[in-house]
């Protein structure tokens, strides 16, 4: 069983069917799944995206300044972090939000030591604001934070049950990998994570597990070692 995990949730995964805003039902289900593993003693740090509210790159295509757009995106991740922390508090799970940019009292300013201390005390720790720098994504924020806090694995909770040869929502002939190497992800141009995040995980040997978080109980299954998703790791064979 993993002792410490970094769970990456996209902003869109918090949204309802129209991929915008925050769906309270979805949020509550995520909170339940997270509490269930935290109660079993797993230290859970979470990086959350902001795509349900704002993405800097799409903003810049509409004429926003890229840096300001990315700052808007980072603030969007803080909104999502607060929503998730509120859902966890509502079910009595101790939780703390740390932010990559100073904004007390919304959250304490992040440092790896602070995050680790809070995790060891039994808090779920939500790391908001991505890396704190523009031109990055929360995928890269996740790789970075997972390494900084010495997580055993980065779990990427998505709407799909793993990595496929092509987008299974568009191509019915797509097949799923049980394991794949970082190099293969990059060579095939698979849109699992952006290149910066994948390269960072590769260079530092951070294992990534991609699974469907929208199915209740799946997070627990991953923790139990059930092979329900795709493992990205160095030197793994792929099927
Ligand atoms: N962002 C950023 N730096 C970071 C993380 C995020 O500038 O380190 C901005 C960027 O504009 C990004 C937005 O925040 O588009 C929301 O994050 P992301 O797109 O990763 O969210 P997700 O797709 O996971 O919902």
Q: Which keywords apply here?
A:
239 residues; alpha/beta; Carbamate kinase; 8 helices; 9 strands; binds uridine-5'-diphosphate
Structural class: alpha/beta
What is the rounded distance between the termini? 24 Å
- Could you tell me the number of beta strands? 9
Backbone shape: globular
The ligands bound in this entry are:
uridine-5'-diphosphate
Write down the secondary-structure element order: EHEHHEEHEHEEHHEHE
Could you name the CATH homologous superfamily? Acetylglutamate kinase-like
Put simply, the count of helices is 8
Quote the average pLDDT.
94
Task: Kindly identify the CATH topology.
Answer: Carbamate kinase
The assigned CATH architecture is 3-Layer(aba) Sandwich
What composes the largest sheet? 9 strands, mixed
Describe the structure.
The protein is α/β, with parallel strands linked by helices. It has a single domain, classed as Acetylglutamate kinase-like (Carbamate kinase, 3-Layer(aba) Sandwich), CATH 3.40.1160. Helices cover 37% and strands 18% of the residues. The protein has eight helices and nine strands. The protein has a nine-stranded mixed beta sheet with strand order 4-3-5-2-1-6-8-9-7, with helices on both faces. Strand 1, helix 1 and strand 2 form a beta-alpha-beta unit. Helix 1 crosses helix 3 and helix 5 runs parallel beside helix 7. The chain is globular and about 50 Å long. The two termini are 24 Å apart. The model has no long low-confidence stretch (mean pLDDT 94). The structure holds uridine-5'-diphosphate. Uridine-5'-diphosphate (UDP) binds next to helix 2, helix 3 and helix 5.
């Amino acid at each position: 069983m993993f002792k410490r995990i970094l769970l990456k949730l996209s902003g869109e995964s918090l949204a309802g069917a129209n991929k915008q805003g925050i769906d309270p039902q979805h949020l509550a289900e995520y909170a339940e799944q997270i509490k269930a593993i935290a109660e079993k003693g797993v230290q859970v740090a979470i990086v959350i995206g902001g795509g349900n509210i704002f993405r800097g790159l799409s903003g810049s295509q509409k004429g926003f300044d890229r840096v300001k757009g990315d700052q808007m995106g980072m603030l969007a991740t803080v909104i999502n972090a607060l929503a998730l922390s509120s859902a966890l508090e509502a079910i009595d799970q101790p939780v703390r939000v740390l932010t990559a940019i100073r904004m007390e009292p919304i959250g304490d300013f992040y440092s790896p030591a602070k995050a680790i201390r809070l995790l060891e005390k039994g808090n779920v720790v939500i790391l908001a604001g991505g890396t704190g720098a523009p031109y990055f994504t929360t995928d890269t924020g996740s790789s970075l934070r997972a390494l900084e806090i010495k997580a055993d694995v980065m779990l990427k909770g998505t709407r799909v049950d793993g990595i496929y040869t092509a987008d299974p929502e568009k191509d019915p002939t797509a097949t799923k990998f049980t394991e794949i190497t970082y190099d293969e992800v990059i060579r095939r141009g698979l849109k699992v994570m952006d290149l910066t995040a994948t390269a960072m995980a590769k260079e530092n040997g951070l294992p990534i597990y991609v699974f469907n978080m929208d199915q209740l109980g799946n997070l627990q299954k991953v923790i139990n070692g059930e092979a329900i998703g795709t493992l990205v790791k160095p030197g793994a064979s792929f099927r």
